[in-house]
Amino acid sequence: MSDLINIQQKLLPDVLAVMQKRYQILRSIYFAEPVGRRTLAGMLGMSERVLRGEVEFLKAQGLIDIASSGMTVTKEGLIVFRDLEGIMNQLSGLHSAENRLAELLQIKKCLVVQGDSDITPWVREEMGRVAVKQLDLALVEKRNVVAVMGGSTMATFADTMPSDFAKGRELLFVPGRGGIGEDLDNQANTICDRIATKTGTKHRVLYVPEQLGEEAYQSLMKEPAIQEGLRLVQSANAIVHGIGDALTMAKRRHTSDEVIEKITRLSAVGEAFGYYFNEQGEVVHKVSTFGLQFEDLAKIPHIIVVAGGTSKAKAIKSYMKSAPENTILVTDEGAANMLLNGSKAHLK
What we know:
Helix content: 40-55%
CATH class of the largest domain: Alpha Beta
Organism: Listeria fleischmannii 1991
Domain CggR N-terminal DNA binding: 18-88
Family: Belongs to the SorC transcriptional regulatory family.
InterPro entries: CggR_N, NagB/RpiA_transferase-like, SorC_transcr_regulators, Sugar-bd_dom_put, WH-like_DNA-bd_sf, WH_DNA-bd_sf
Mean pLDDT: 87
Domain Sugar-binding: 92-341
CATH architecture of the largest domain: 3-Layer(aba) Sandwich
């Protein structure tokens, strides 16, 4: 396939340019549907006049439908879109970027989706879909315990989970941490419940505050029910989690002014599992949390991290300096460009 693409680039470059343009239109309609022509033109940076001709072509081919509510992708259009993904990623340089990024971060694998989730929110949905596929490939055992962390990215991951995900496997989804006091929709408990309900699988809850004072923390750790819940979480053979911006996460957790001053003074840029990392990957602060600890990751065979957007690049880089080598990172062009080039330039 790559040889054919190289030949086409030399002999028929215009054909490939048209194919890329129509793929981008189809992709944008799929993630924003139903979407109007004016909105789509703005998303793509294309004039309505030029877009009108392309949309009419896609409709004539049966790839999209046009209604008063907006444009949507047909079943045939979705098949074409999925079939084109690999080719388009190769043409855009994404495959090469993925390999370079994995080498830079010294982890098992990187997968980069087109776009920047800071600018285009539906890019996060695409990252979620890719993460679901990676989890599906990882769960080769008959019985699996999957730990899922909280956060808005993980909530999107849950939304992209297909109803037939179990495929005959016995799956138990467990929250990687407690979450009382956090936004309900983004709590790990809630996300596990949504995934289990959607896929017809099982889940457990960990109804304890995400963070407590040291005395209360040590007291609760002695409770048999808490210990049993933590043992179950620690037995996970796969985990899916995000990476947070340090200050954003601290404020979201209603952290004291004293601690915020500390992590600011010590230049924390990233956060995961209650650990705050500086740009060198050093832990500059840790909060006592109920659930998986960073050191527990060494025992988990399959680790999938989902984080994207230009604004997350420093957080991703800081965390990956300590991440296990078997980590798979699902990110977007926005973060990948900053990590590889230190700029927003397009990946090449």
